[in-house]
Amino acid sequence: MIRFDRVTKQFDDGTEALKNVSLTIPTGKLTAIIGPSGCGKTTLMKMINRLENPTSGDILIDEKSISDRDEVELRRSIGYVIQRIGLFPHMTIAKNVALVPTLIGWSAEKTQNRVNELMNMVGLDPDIYINRFPLELSGGQQQRVGVVRALAGDPNIVLMDEPFSALDPISREQLQEELKNLQRKIHKTIVFVTHDMDEALKIADHLIVMRAGEIEQIGPPSEIIHNPSNDFVRQFIGLERINNKRSFGQYKLVELSAYFFQANTGQQIVSVNNSVNVSEAIELLGQPNADVLAVYDDEQFVGYINQSALLKAVLAKEEGVSVHD
Amino acid sequence: MTDFLETLQSRSDLIQQAFLEHIYLSFVALAIGIVISLPLGILIARYRKFAEPIIGITAIFQTIPSLALFGFLVPLMGIGSNTALIALIIYALLPILRNTYTGLTSVDSSIIEAGRGMGMTRTQVLKQIEFPLALPFIMAGIRTATVLTVGIATLATFVGAGGLGDVIYRGLQSYNNSLVLAGALPVALLAIVFDLVLKWVEKKATPKGMKI
Fold first, then answer.
1. Domain total for chain B?
2. Measured between CB atoms, does A165 come within 8 Å of chain B?
3. Are residues A74 and A149 in the same domain?
4. CB spacing of B117 vs A80 below 8 angstroms
5. Which residues share a beta bridge with A34?
6. Do both A282 and A202 map to the same domain?
7. Does A213 touch chain B (CB under 8 A)?
8. Which of the residues A198, A234, A271, B90 has the least number of beta carbons within 10 Å of its own beta carbon?
């Protein structure tokens, strides 16, 4: 278990990256830290292996403060995968993966067995790949190596800093899937920083939503989707995802007429019939030149609705309460 | 042409000695230049606020015309090969220093962060990551310095340090064009041969994984 106890981080230029943050990252789970850029999520992660040190407060691993531990020794016990792959281009794949085992002095044989085992685990045939150089591999293959390199020393904790963000969408999805499957076998404590909500919802057991150096909400993805703690979280998750995860996509607009408004604000308008459902309406609003829907009951104009009104309407519907302004 | 060959034969002792002196001057200067500027380059790559002034100072030295630099040194150091060596070392500094600095600072910062994040010490990062990746740059600097030094060593004759400049100077004084050529040609050849050899070394120094 990793525990942050009232941690504050202020950089030399005065920016406060973390404001009095206390949280717990559970053992053996994949915890995703998510938030817009500049929210302090990477700083928070880098404090776990002391690439950043707190200005005040304490970080504890298994209830032991890491501030008294030797940085180098601590980092060797924690896996680390960085955003832009970060494989060493002048070393073979085998040498790259064997880095931490070599640093901590494993025997050559044990190291080699471990390298082969890990390469097989991510579907890269050791006979083919271990003597190649990183640039001879595709981006997806390189980041697979990046992931197994972090696992090589058999750490209990693995930190991943937006590891798949530089990959093409297809490789990204594949690697997310593989990471999920891998985690089912290895049960490491993985801290995964991302700004991609789809990614976080897909792979995480546990979610930390951050904004401007503060924690907005912590919990399992399902809870955050069903119970966003505030407007920011709700907005960050996005209407579409809430819609996908809930049943109210099937509500017809006619059921939401209480949330229609009558004033045309001069925005781009698309006309729809009030028999369309919420899913279809969201799709229409997602198109360019469609800020507002003009809803008609056959020929009869009923009112306008936009994204935020729609959000209020469906939330009210779902929770059985009314959220009038 | 026959004149030239005769001169080569009759003055072979002089030419040979001058040639050896020339190589000695160039190489000792280069070796000391490397010993000074390589660690200095590593240092200023780590403490970057010192980079600008230190590179600036060596650049100023570089702009002093070589003959003038020899001239400045004579009143301070007298004549002899030490004076020549100091002038040559000063010229060798800038290319090596600047390339070492550029090479080290151009290593992708994410690679260095990966190394540190996995628990490499600063020395390990320097030895195993930064230095191998900067080596092609450093070798290019050494190559530039070598060619420069071999050329400028020709002026060592004016401070009595010998070298192939001796042969050229004597030829000039006695209006003996063949003798001038007998000094100038080996200098040119030396420079070209070292350039080619070091170019090859530079290529070899490029890590295998970087050539893809």
1. 1
2. no
3. yes
4. yes
5. A194, A209
6. no
7. no
8. A271
Q: What is the ipTM of this complex?
A: 0.77
Same domain, A310 and A172: no
- Structural domain span for residue A294: 244-319
Task: State the residue range of the domain holding B191.
Answer: 2-210
Distance from CA of A317 to the nearest CA of B (A): 48
Assigned domain for A232 exists: yes
A135–B119 C-beta distance less than 8 A: no
Do B209 and A92 lie within an 8 Å CB cutoff? yes
Task: Tell me: do A9 and A102 sit in the same domain.
Answer: yes
Which residues between 221 and 240 in chain A have a beta carbon less than 8 angstroms from any beta carbon of chain B? Answer: none
Q: Which residues make Cβ contacts (< 8 Å) with residue B20, sequence separation at least 6?
A: none
**CATH code, domain with B149:** 1.10.3720.10
Check if the beta carbon of residue A101 is closer than 8 Å to that of residue B118.
no
Q: How far apart are CA B48 and CA A143, in angstroms?
A: 32
pLDDT in tens, chain B (212 residues): 778 888 878 888 888 888 999 999 999 999 999 999 999 999 999 898 898 898 998 888 888 888 888 888 888 888 888 888 999 999 999 999 999 999 999 998 889 999 999 999 999 999 999 999 999 999 999 999 999 999 999 988 888 888 888 888 888 988 888 888 888 999 999 999 999 999 998 888 888 877 76
Q: Which two tokens stand for residue A101?
A: 């085992």
- Chain A: residue nearest B122 by CA? A72
Nearest CA in chain A to B123: A72
**Six-digit token string for B85:** 């060596």
Q: Which amino acid is at B4?
A: F
